[in-house]
Structure formats: C-alpha cells, structure tokens
Write a structure and sequence with these properties.
Methane Monooxygenase Hydroxylase, Chain G, domain 1, seven-stranded mixed sheet, Beta Polymerase, domain 2, alpha+beta, 7 strands, 295 residues
Amino acid sequence: MTQILAITKDGVERLETVDRRKKLWIIVDDKKNVKEVLESVGIKNDFFVELLAKDSRPRVEEFEGGFFVILRRPNRGGSSQVSFVLGKNFLVSMGAEYESARKRVEMDDSARSLERLLYLLLDSVLDEYFRLIEGIEEEIARLETELLSRPDESTMKKIYSTNRKLTRLRRMSWPLRDVFGTLEAEDSLGEKERFRDLYERGIQIMESIEVNSELLSEMIEIYLESINRRLSEIMKVLTIVSTIFIPLTFIVGVYGMNFRNMPELEWEYSYPAVLAFMVVITVAMIFYFRKKGWM
C-alpha cells in the first residue's frame, strides 16, 4: 500500500494520485511499488530502483536535485532496510515508523519542510537503536546481579547471548557515522544543525555499544575467575584430605604386611593404640593447617 500525502501550511492532506505541483510525502509499504512511485516523481534510473527494491548497504547517494538515504532499522529479530528519497518537492520514505513524524507535522508548522520531515524520520530510526541499547543495558544489570550471587553455566550462556545481540547491533550502527556525516556536510541541505544532531546521536550509539561491550567482556572475565577460584577451593580441600590420609595410609600399610616377628601384633592394646595414634596425627595435622591458614 502507498500513501500519498501533501504537506500544506495547515498540515497534511491525503491525495489519491501524485500531484507534482504540491509538496509531497509518499509512504511506500511494499517494495513492489518502488519503481512506480519513483517514476511518478520523475526518477527513472534503474540503479536507484534496485537500491530501494533490494537490501543494500547503508549509504547516501546523490542524484540531480536530491539524495537517496539508506539505513538499517534494528529490531529484536534482526533488522530491516529503511530508505528515503529527498527531492526538490517530494520525500519518499519506505520502512520507517512514520506515525510520530506525521503527528509532529500536523501539529507544528515549523516541521512542514521536507528536510525537517526527513530529519524526524531519521531520528525515529535512531530511537530504535537507543531502545534496543536500553534493553541490553537492563539485561546487563540483571546479569551483574546474577554474577555477584551464584553464577552457573546458564549465566555464561546469557552473557554470550547478550554479547551476540550487541555485536549484531554494532554491525548495523557502524555505517551511521558515515551516513549522517555525509548529510551534515552537504551544503544544499538547510537543516545542518539538525543533521549534525543526528551525527552526534549516531556517535553516542556507537560509544554506548562499545561501553556495554567492554562491560560484557569484564563480566566474562569475572565469571571465568569465579570458576577458577571455585576449582582452586575444591582442589585445596582435596589436597588437604589427601595429605591427611598419607600418614594414615602409611601406618595401615605397615601393619598390613603381616610379618611374623612384629611385636605389636601380640600386644593386647596394639589395635586401639594404633587407632588412637592415627586420630592424634589427624588432629595435629588439621590444627597445623588451620594455624597456617590453609583451612
């Protein structure tokens, strides 16, 4: 479905067909209509049709009298392409969330220029990035709490899952700097301060992603350290137990040789005496380990 809107001094007026005498905002919901829409505003270049009809890398392409702007719009399942064509008296948008921009144009007469409308639509795309970053930051906060209590293997899986989301978001956001930097540097655009604001917001998104990526890396290190510390504690306990049993095993081994001329074998109290001696050795070793701080 394609919506054709005329931006007037009073707001937004819906049209049935393209009227190139008016300032137009054309909202394209189906890529199949791209060629027809572009031809209706005077663009017959097949290359530009392919840019919008297929998934293309984020970029700004200039044509006579205007610009193509292509971005990736993030969502929880991945991303989708968002495309804009800004001409002298028209703006074609495809894939962007347009309701908030439409309300702004209807309520605010200062937002009724096509460049301001492009800014509002691009800003709504950046809002999607910030919403995803906020969601990831909430996940990281929960993981930090879990990490400080009793982390297990599921904690590590959650950390890696969050890190994958962040990596995917970094890959999508990387071209933002180039796209908005190109728009900011374009002399023919009148809303330079607003496009500079988009550029700075794009940089802020990338910085937030890097900060959260570093946090996740530190959390992975903390988790591995906690695992190593837990293994060290287990090994320490096992080593102490093994050390205690070494002299006991020696004593049992000596008296288990069954030589005929072992005088202790004929003594009435030899069995309880050996057991008592083994208990004394055990207690003495435990006392020594505690004094050294090994237990």
